[in-house]
Amino acid sequence: MSQSENASPEKPGAEKPGAEKPAAEKTGPGRKRGQTSGFDETDRQILDLLQHHDRPVAVLAEELGMSQTPCWRRIRKLEEAGVIRGRVTLVDPEKAGVPLTVFISVTAPRHEAQWLDRFRSLIESIPEIVEAYRLTGPTDYILKAMVPDIRAYDQLYKTMIEGLEFSQINSSISMEELKFTTAVPLNYL
After folding, report:
1. Which site from 73, 79, 153, 159 is most exposed, i.e. has the minimal number of CB atoms within 10 Å?
2. Per residue in 128-175, pLDDT tens?
3. Which domains does the chain have, with CATH numbers?
4. What is the DSSP code string of 46-109?
5. Are strands 129-134 and 168-173 parallel, antiparallel or unpaired?
6. d(CA 163, CA 123)
7. What does the alpha-carbon distance between residue 5 and residue 2 come to, in Å, rounded to a whole number?
């Protein structure tokens, strides 16, 4: 058995002193991992662990095989760079009384800044609308709303059409959540 086969597995993030780092991996169209981001594999491991379950720095540092202070400094660097935007608690929608998810497709009557500003204000004023995106294609915007029942959605719909003119609004009710994650892919960092 060779010496490398006999070696014990290293902890994530641990580097051998004087060891040369492998060539950067290709990650995404024409880009190598870490090519311009200034972040390394340990930063990606920190983000991966924190995205799936927030934990105290002491626990995170132990999982990564590093001391607390360098781990904390890396987290601060990620926060200062805006990679970590904040930390939140995920609430179960059913237990919070909003088990119904509705996707609302919106077509604007015209494309102008004034309408968009009013639309933005309208959706910001409706707490049941939890996500909103401007799209390409025949639908201009897609909204995600969380409500207790169809009656609550109907009230939300009426609030929207009373507040602003639309060319078209279509709704789709989610029957089953097949995948949900707040974790973003890190292989492009």
Report:
1. 73
2. 999 999 999 999 999 999 999 999 999 999 999 999 999 999 999 999
3. 41-80 (1.10.10.10), 100-173 (3.30.70.920)
4. HHHHHHH----HHHHHHHHTS-HHHHHHHHHHHHHTTSS-----PPPTTTTT--EEEEEEEE-S
5. unpaired
6. 10
7. 5
Angstrom distance (rounded) from CA 12 to CA 64:
5
HSE on the CB side for 4, CA within 13 Å? 0
Tokens 């939300």 belong to which residue? 156
pLDDT(34) > 70? no
Q: Indicate whether 84 pLDDT > 80.
A: yes
Q: Are 138 and 107 in contact (CB under 8 A)?
A: yes
**Nearest 5°: phi and psi at 81?**
-80, -5
The encoded tokens of residue 69 equal: 């202070």
> Would you say residue 39 has pLDDT above 60?
yes
From residue 119, give the alpha-carbon distance in Å to each of 140, 158, 177.
12, 14, 28
Amino acid letter, residue 22: P
pTM over 0.85: no
Least confident range from 5-9, 55-59, 85-89, 159-163: namely 5-9
